[in-house]
Amino acid sequence: MLERGLQVDHTTIYRWVQRYAPELERRCRPHVTSTTDSWRVDETYIKVKKEWVSLYRAVDSQGKTLDFVLSPTRDGQAARHFLLKTLAASHTRSPRVINVDKNAAYPKAFNELKAAGYILESGELRQVKYLNNLIEQDHQFIKRLTKPGMGFFSFATAWHTLQGYEVMNMMRKGQVQGVAKGDVRGQVALVAKLFGIAI
User: Fold this and answer.
1) What is the model's pTM?
2) Of 155, 167, 197, whose CA–CA distance to 26 is shortest?
3) From the first residue on, what is the mean pLDDT of each consecutive set of 10 residues in the chain (199 residues)?
């Protein structure tokens, strides 16, 4: 901004992120390309008010982001909520296989959703840690962005900011229709189009 002759205070940027990141995610959702039926599910930790909370994340076998949820707890209910949200996303397919770590919450949540018919009878849950290397690597971009900030001051601000991080990462991966991987001009054009801005 300064290079363009505009002086903007960091609190202004913060307010923009809080206001527009959730809106950007909402507007991008219909344009996200479909993913595969092989899921990698895991959680990482984010500091909010000096306490660690869980960020549930999932990618498919090609590294495309399926979905994400910030949760104050790491238990069966949180895992079930995350899986339900991911299943409901318009760009995801019913999983043929879900790879998870040894967290005991996943089998319980998986079996409940399978019994309720949310997951196909042929769906399989695999608890093999090394199969989740893809999602572990994908967590790194979140850690690079959140670590310098040393945490968030509220759950709401953390969630809004993370929505912005995640949707921009999906764009960078080339997961949004009409925007190729690494196409910065395409990303700018899409955001402008979504918000009705002339560029």
Assistant:
1) 0.91
2) 167
3) 86 92 96 97 95 97 97 96 97 96 94 97 92 93 87 94 96 95 94 88
